[in-house]
Amino acid sequence: MPSTFATGPRSRWLALIVLCAGMLMVVLDGSIVTVALPAIQRDLNFSPSSLTWTVNAYMIAFGGLLLLAGRLGDLIGRKRMLLAGLAVFVVASLLCGLAGSAEMLIATRFLQGVGGAMFSAVSLGMIVTLFTEPSERARAIGAFAFTGAVGASIGQVLGGVLTDALGWHWVFLINLPIGVAAALLAVPLLENDRGLGLGKGADALGAALVTSGVMLGVYAIVQAEQYGWTSGRTLGLVALALALIAGFVVRQATAARPLLPLRVFRARNVWGSNLIQMLVLGALFSFQIHIALYMQGVLEYGATATGLAMLPAALAIGAVSLGFSARLISRFGERAILLCGLVLLLAARLLLIRLPVDGTYVVDLLPVMLLTAGGGLVLPALTALGMSGARPEDAGVTSGLFNTTQQIGAALGVAALSTLAASRAEHLAAEGAQAASALTGGYHLAFVVGAGLLAAGVALTALVLKKPAPGKPGKVTATSPATATPPATATTV
């Protein structure tokens, strides 16, 4: 395949700036909406459980389409896929900002996830193609990862400021100037690549099966609050979702060009790391949402104050992942650092279980924010361990799998824990509890379940994962800090 970029040093680094700008937009959108959720709920009359669809619709589309988008990028050309992804994301952001109903916002958030998947599925692969010298590649990937940390950090603060000053619509409209600027710069800076041609094939059926299965599973969980966890409707939807996912597995075993060759699961570190990642991301994303709702719904913080209150957690994760994780992993090994990070996250969730109705920030919340720095150890170590079991010819699809389980784990965790919290709060309110006490009780249950997910991650790390052998891909990955940015993409499926 022809070179993706102009080969001059200046052109390569300018192209990197374009890719980082686009990723900043995608990552920013993942965190900026969190603080605006209460305002969105009030304005569009979301129920507590259906509100999670403003997050889940984005993550489901993003995670479900990454593998297919990466393969299509190989077939039609990565520049075309990247520009199309930017266009879809910008248009969807405009429609989100103009949404006048809950249904329209959920639909346009799904469209945003489609655009985010199209962009993200090819961006990191383009960087690897552009920077072939090891030290330059490390610097480039480090800059790309730092963009993710910055986006996650400023998103919550910017979301609060925009919501208070201009309204929640602007947390989506802010994407327009960033996306348009990135697209205008990408046209002259990124060289055209012809791709392999659509005749090489893409497993559209496999992508449809896995995406519809995940969507239906999340929908069943969210609707369980209304119909009951053991109702025929809920159990039937869950059974259908599992059948679709089983169909995806069968399809991958029989397809000539599968999205996800099943041989990648022969390595214990691959399937173990992906399973642990789903548990961890489910706990982390639900924490982000529920702690923001607690501060605004119980402590009566404003949107700006909530964003500022959550900033130490994002900064701590970014600082640890960018400044310390690679050196610690190099010295003590991925498995030991992963265990250490998981224990820190578990300690933070255990502190949240005792969160009072009249909590204070310094005593009850700040220690939790600082302990969340464990995420800066967990994500790089997980990525390194997961890639350590991949054969060289499967490196692309294995990294694409990691992107996918990130999004699916986050979506399922948010849906399940939010539904449990809403059900518990309604039960307590029906028993006569005050609104603030009922909400806090619901969040307590979510934090308990989140702690259970992290405890399961600790157990799996100790029992399943093994230290990578010298020279495995995980050692290479560990030098590149991982953040909320997808750690790699499926560009070589």
From TrEMBL:
InterPro entries: MFS, MFS_dom, MFS_trans_sf. It is a multi-pass membrane protein. It is found in: Cell membrane. Gene3D superfamilies: MFS general substrate transporter like domains (1.20.1250.20), Multidrug resistance protein D (1.20.1720.10). It comes from Planotetraspora silvatica. Residues 477-493 have a biased composition (Low complexity). This is MFS transporter. GO terms for molecular function: transmembrane transporter activity. The keyword Lipid metabolism does not apply. The keyword Membrane applies. GO terms for cellular component: plasma membrane. Residues 15-469 form the Major facilitator superfamily (MFS) profile domain. Pfam families: MFS_1 (PF07690). The chain crosses the membrane at residues 12-39, 51-69, 81-100, 106-131, 143-162, 168-190, 202-222, 234-254, 275-295, 301-324, 336-353, 365-387, 445-465. Keywords: Cell membrane, Membrane, Transmembrane, Transmembrane helix, Transport. Residues 471-493 are annotated as: Disordered. PROSITE patterns: MFS. SUPFAM superfamilies: MFS general substrate transporter.
